[in-house]
What does this fold into?
Amino acid sequence: MTLYDIPLRTLAGEPTSLAAYKGTAVLLVNVASKCGLTPQYAGLERLQQQYGERGFTVLGVPCNQFAGQEPGTAEEIQTFCSATYGVSFPLLEKTDVNGETRHPLYAELTATADAEGEAGDVQWNFEKFLISRTGEVVARIRPRTEPEAPEVIAAIEAQLPG
It folds into this structure.
């Protein structure tokens, strides 16, 4: 099974999968509306605007597992993201990223080590996974690293066509 084979749902409840993004580099991020790191939405949207036409997308995955910081309904999440941060990138349905109810996608993603060689549970909201255009996890970026940090930009650019 590849990442492309794992069934997902959009925030609107429609079936999808990462296969919809085959050929595109994806920065998959577990997001939350009421977190100290929520302003990262602005940087994520700037990445979407800067690189979207070059075969890149941010994919937000709302998660309420960290101090209940994403309590909203799908409609509330969509409204918050678009009204507050002008989010244009796609969002998936609210998903568990850790524990017994961890989504199969995150079971695969959390096997990937970060720059310090640590794999395992997602630490907090806004942990980022960069997926190559061929569906491989090529980077794991911890929550406090800003979306537009030089190392994130370099990793994204390395996945884009010349």
The domain at 3-159 is CATH 3.40.30.10 (Glutaredoxin). Residues 40-51 form the longest helix (12 residues).
